[in-house]
Amino acid sequence: MKAVHFGAGNIGRGFIGLLLHEAGYEVVFADVNADLIDAITAADSYDVHEVGAGGRTKTVTGFRAVNSAADEAALIEEIATADVVTTAVGPNVLRFVAPVIAKGLLARSSGSPRLAVMACENAISATDTLAAEIRSSAGDSAVTVDERAVFANTAVDRIVPGQDPAAGIDVTVETFCEWVIESTPFGGATPVIPGATFVDALGPYIERKLFTVNTGHATAAYAGFAAGHQRIAEAFADPEVRDLVERVLRETSALLVAKHELDPAEQDAYREKILARFANDALPDTVVRVGRQPLRKLSRDERFIGPASQLAERGMLTDDLVEAIGVALRFDAPEDPESVELQQLLADLAPAAFVERVTGLPPEHPLTPHLVEVVASR
């Protein structure tokens, strides 16, 4: 079995690539970073160091790497003969990898089994987004693409911090990981990935993860940055930061229970498990790394506006999420281009215009007045 994975970075090697390796796949990493591809090509193995309670080191072997910018023909051939294609490139990059996936699908033998295509991104329905881009790239051959591929959405969860440059291609990760894949598109013939969980309805899992893990992690980053902390674990040890994170996640939990009819006790237990992960002092994650790309994180369907808007539409409380959004507006990290753009937009736009442009909410939305107020009073 062979899997082609787009994104040979830390998440690709330390999470998806690891689980594919453990499932028995030969993993072909595809990336545009020439130095990284050369380093992977030169190595026979790499180690994934799990840190925290029960942590251990796992060794990955049997992989190859392709420079997707310099050797498209080789990548097309790999896709044409693969069983699985996955991505961990970031939601905004999916449109750039779609064309070569389309070419690989069109190059597959008509008698080959359908290729399982799964985008493993921190975004809702990322595979749907990727599939639409692939169909668009295929043009008149879009029908053939659907005949040769199965597109399945996923929910992924593993904290992979910034790495020590001296580590080479080894990766340090937390012990916890979760890869949930919708099973319905496969019609009962799901890929062999023992480390993944296949479910009929993925929506609750995606929102549970995004509105608990990602919302909480980002809140800790922005509140920690505002308080002058450097690392996430350090920030989370601050009682005021932790209090805000806990209040925010109580609001998102209320939404998840109401919307998806989750068991309240099970959601409470899940939330407490997530809070314990943020406190893992063995993870050298920084508030700047976790807080980067604030404009994306403040967009319509993301970790703050997504749950806050749905709560407002239901007439439920949003005070703590709105407070966290206000803290996020103070994220001023010159090394992050989106942070720089955020601060420029705050300086250039009136509060109402800023809210509509950044969050995508119309003026008549019930959450909008609260956001306009927090922008105006920042």
UniProtKB/TrEMBL annotation:
Any one GO BP annotation for this protein: mannitol catabolic process
Catalytic reaction(s) noted: D-mannitol 1-phosphate + NAD(+) = beta-D-fructose 6-phosphate + NADH + H(+)
Keywords tagged on the record: NAD, Oxidoreductase
Mannitol dehydrogenase N-terminal domain location: 1-193
EC assignment: 1.1.1.17
Superkingdom of origin organism: Bacteria
InterPro entries reported for this sequence: 6-PGluconate_DH-like_C_sf, 6PGD_dom2, Mannitol_1_phos_5_DH, Mannitol_DH, Mannitol_DH_C, Mannitol_DH_N, NAD(P)-bd_dom_sf
GO molecular function, one term: mannitol-1-phosphate 5-dehydrogenase activity
One GO location term (cellular component): cytosol
Domain Mannitol dehydrogenase C-terminal residue range list: 202-343
Enzyme class: oxidoreductase
Positions with a binding annotation for NAD(+): 3-14
Family note: Belongs to the mannitol dehydrogenase family.
PANTHER family membership: ALTRONATE OXIDOREDUCTASE-RELATED (PTHR30524:SF0), MANNITOL-1-PHOSPHATE 5-DEHYDROGENASE (PTHR30524)
NCBIfam families on file: PRK02318.2-5
Protein name: Mannitol-1-phosphate 5-dehydrogenase
Native organism: Labedella phragmitis
Gene coding for it: mtlD
